[in-house]
Amino acid sequence: MKKALVIHIILISIVFITCDLFEEEKNADVLGIWTGAYGSNGTLTMEIINEKYIIIFDDAVGQNIKHGYWERKGNELELNNNSSKATLSGDKLYLFQYIDNSNNRPNTITLERKVNAPKHLTILRINNQSGKIIYNAIWNNISFYNNVNNNSLIPGNFITKDVDPGQGYVFFNFYDVNNKLINARTNQVIIISKDNKEIFIFNDYTIITEIGNIDNNTNSGQLGSFESVKE
Fold this sequence. Notes:
Layout: H1 2-21, H2 23-26, E1 32-38, E2 42-49, E3 52-59, E4 62-73, E5 76-79, E6 85-89, E7 92-96, E8 108-116, E9 123-128, E10 134-139, E11 142-143, E12 152-153, E13 158-162, E14 166-168, E15 170-175, E16 181-186, E17 190-192, E18 197-202, E19 207-210, E20 220-222
Parallel strand pairs: 9-18
Antiparallel strand pairs: 1-2, 1-8, 2-3, 3-4, 4-5, 5-6, 6-7, 7-8, 9-13, 10-11, 10-12, 10-15, 14-17, 15-16, 16-19, 19-20
């Protein structure tokens, strides 16, 4: 029963993460860089990427950069900042913003797309569905961590990168059940072919191997309950 439950949980995670990986294809009509003019010499630039946006006001007063998250409902993007939103109509994006209205910066502005979203061909997503914080995750010399959060990939988060085709382990650090920092790698070799999209999911049952410990270099076990050798 326990084994069946574990498999069921893993399958559910794969379904949801696979769907999430292809969000960029579903939102291809809004992803990219949009710009619009305001006032005598002002320019508003809005970059939309998966789940996040960046808005840059650039005028005689100077630059102001704002960022946040968005959620799509039909042709409307709800921005998580002061009830602001953007509506797609044809090849234009109508931004209704209350993020910065100082210095005559507009509440409403029409934006045109200048740069389409880049087409990702060969990509790898590493998703942390475990209860552990993953530090310094690297696959084939490509980092999969957030520099803002101490080079970590926290539970519930993921990192997606363009990669070259290849194969290799994921090398990373984490704290075991005794709060000891462990150097480890996945037991699974991740293989990515050209023009493919692959997902690797860390969960509490992921089998890993400790490395860099001369007393226990062959120590393997599940990530969630892993214990290094006692000194």
